[in-house]
Amino acid sequence: MKKKIVIIGGVAAGMSAAAKARRTDPDADIRVYTDGEHISYAGCGLPYFIGGKIASEEKLFARTVADFAEQDIAVKILSRAEEISPEKGTVRIRDLAGGMTYEDRYDRLILASGARSFAPPMEGADLEGVFSLRTVRDSLRIKTFLQTRRPREIAIIGGGYIALEMAENFVDLGCRVSIVERGSHIIPNMDEDMATVMQRYLESKGIAVHTGRAVRGFFGTQTVGGVHTDKGDIPADFVLLAIGVVPNSELAASAGIDLGVKNAIRVNERAETNLEGVYAAGDCATVTHLLTGKETYIPLGTTSNKQGKAAGENAAGGNAAFHGVIGTGIARAIEMEVSRTGLGEKECQAAGIAYVARRIKADTAAHYCPASREVYLKLIAEASGHRLLGAQIVGYEGAAMRIDMLATAITVGATVEQLLDMDLAYSPPFSPVWDPVLVALNQF
Amino acid sequence: MKKKIVIIGGVAAGMSAAAKARRTDPDADIRVYTDGEHISYAGCGLPYFIGGKIASEEKLFARTVADFAEQDIAVKILSRAEEISPEKGTVRIRDLAGGMTYEDRYDRLILASGARSFAPPMEGADLEGVFSLRTVRDSLRIKTFLQTRRPREIAIIGGGYIALEMAENFVDLGCRVSIVERGSHIIPNMDEDMATVMQRYLESKGIAVHTGRAVRGFFGTQTVGGVHTDKGDIPADFVLLAIGVVPNSELAASAGIDLGVKNAIRVNERAETNLEGVYAAGDCATVTHLLTGKETYIPLGTTSNKQGKAAGENAAGGNAAFHGVIGTGIARAIEMEVSRTGLGEKECQAAGIAYVARRIKADTAAHYCPASREVYLKLIAEASGHRLLGAQIVGYEGAAMRIDMLATAITVGATVEQLLDMDLAYSPPFSPVWDPVLVALNQF
HEC string of B382-427? Predict the structure, then answer.
């Protein structure tokens, strides 16, 4: 008899799982349920869609329901999973269009229910013009609001990657932008000395960056007029909540599935939950941090694809492992780029790791090339033995992607001394004769 | 008594050696002789200087004679070393301005005499309009010729990196460009399947690429009118010889210093020659290929800096090693980039290494981003164990610098399997969710 694999969730992890399950078992009955109307969309592209850099909505969709049907993968949109009954091996689905519910049986279940924007209960959060950005639907609502109401004063609550990307796109649209961050610096997953380079750049572009300010709520009549903070009001006729996401794990929890850090669904490296035959992957699930060995929650599209692929392969009878992440991230705001990988200074301190950090300022290309611009690069290594633990970069075009060199080095456990004389690519338009990475390595 | 360190050569290796010797021994008497009039210049920048992308000659100079004097390093320009007497510990110097010769004593001698353009004796090579490009003086002569004679038909002899860079700059200047390469494909240090991607691109930009054609000489009356090849003539009112360089090692050889592959001065990883107290570094010296373990000759600015630094440190009493290279290279022609590291297929075959190669075509950024363009990436790994041996990239903006990730991996001996699930940076303007490197790794 055919194995029946049911997948809950139709974006990165869910559709990666479905495609890999099909490749692993050509005969399996594979069914995907999603409560959304769009599948397999590029969530990370939404800021650029809002900014008009991606011309049409269609470009955001990697593959359609029809594409998956050709692979004999049945995708049911607008179909919400409401209850899992592990003892019966069934899921209760609500058809959001018709309103009816029905049960479906599974041999293997993959939870890829994603995450939702974190929106703490705050006064005025229901005013018109207060948005979060997670789905294609969110982006369409925002685009409509921007086109019909033409807001000029944008307040972005939260100072992470989404804030940087949306700041760029709002500036492109001719808006004034404020960023309101509760912590002492923007980009919470970077160290303060690096994050402040980006902060100064944003300010030089006319973006108001308010750090150390807690949002109390929003004011306005019907439409938002501004943000109440603990240190005064900030006028705004558009507010974007970008203070992070929380995993959609309630359905799993109520079925007796263990949750882990930050209430994400706890999985092992095979993407298995504590219930046999039930897998989880993507923004709803935990992942192992390869440097600390600890369970963590870092929802990202790349991880969703890899973990979803492992879940799909294993659910279909394969034997795949997704070992974990090292916390690599990258973002751009206008012309300045940031990236990071591994552990930052704060994380080393929290983990009780004795480390050495070195920071340099260098050029992205040969100093005499017009394209050459400044880059700041920080490396963090174990105090004893100098194994690389982390890296952070802030700089102009060409700066940030150098993080992948360091992610590679960290992945294989390289030490500073192994890399000191590395034979890196050199040609004037691409790098100085001593690449910034080599300059930094030579500071240890 | 102060140690006296004499350095012959004032560009990358020589001046790196001088600077490092000074940092290692603050008291040493350090003297640099160079037969040129310019020191510490950016040889790799000359194509862009000719093309006008680097506005002024001054920008090419990293540091001046006065800068070095401030560090108490004496630099004598227009001073040619004519003879080394190891038994006496002296060098005979000719003052090219005054014509006199004199002897100078050394405790430690560093040979950093560089390389010169290879120019086989050919009929018509002395015609006006036939140039090679190695020094600032060459570039000034070429600029003058371009400005006064306004050539329109450029023939570049040789199809390596310099040809690509000069093709870009001549196209920018509005010239028609032909590239004449004796081998079966351009970019001899890449595999044919990758090199032909660049070749098709150049042709799409109106550049004539003639492969498999041997140059017999040049014709013209006083000024060059074209190139004789074994398969017919190619009209040209400007010819650039870019068929490689040969090491300036004759002075060393006549002093009893061993030469190695391609007549480069043989050095060990401490940059020592066979004569005690005599070091060599840069484009005049050999270097170890870290993958084959063999002596090789790959003259490059990055290597000159690193090897020069080691020579300077050791001559001043330190204990430095420069272990070698893996053959990393990068170049751009207009909008297309190429890069390579490690061993290519031909090199594996020549070395008798059983290998597996995988080639993919992918995108440089998320498919829906306007900046996303195509990239071809090839990985080569040992057949048994899958240790990475080499990588080659051809593609549009953002493609080629990914080679540094693979250079890092090869440097530390990583296997394909160690890197399969690497946590690389992802954001739509920078990469697709599966970076091309991960796509290629997943083909093994």
Answer: ECCCCEEEEEEEEECCCCHHHHHHHHHHHHCCCEHHHHCCCCCCCC
